[in-house]
Amino acid sequence: MTVNIKINTDTPTGRRLLREVSKYPKVVEIENNTMQSITGEKFYTVNEVDEMCMNKLSNLYGVDMHKLKSKL
């Protein structure tokens, strides 16, 4: 089951809540469609950034970083 929640990040409490839920990237996916439509830039989720970093490190060191990460 998934739940969609809107958090007002203009307030200190909203920013604190966003920081708290972003600590759990395996179960939380944060979308920020409003900013993307305003700036025209792509915003990446934590999982997307993690995947891109693992791919870049794998290519750089010639080792499958996904396997190493799964051993942690």
Describe this structure in words.
With 72 residues, this protein is mostly helical. The chain has one domain. 54% of the residues lie in helices and 0% in strands. It is built from 4 helices and no strands. It has helices at 12-21, 33-39, 46-61, 65-70. The model has no long low-confidence stretch (mean pLDDT 81).
In terms of DSSP E residues, the strand content is: under 5%
Mean pLDDT: 81
Number of helices: 4
Q: In total, how many beta strands?
A: 0
Unreliable spans are none
Secondary-structure element order, N to C: HHHH
Principal-axis shape equals: elongated
Radius of gyration: 15 Å
> How many distinct domains?
1
Alpha-carbon distance between the two ends: 27 Å
Q: What descriptive keywords fit this protein?
A:
single chain, 72 residues, mainly alpha
Provide a brief overview of the structure.
With 72 residues, this protein is mainly α. The chain is 54% helix and 0% strand.
List the helices and strands and how they pair.
Blueprint: H1 12-21, H2 33-39, H3 46-61, H4 65-70
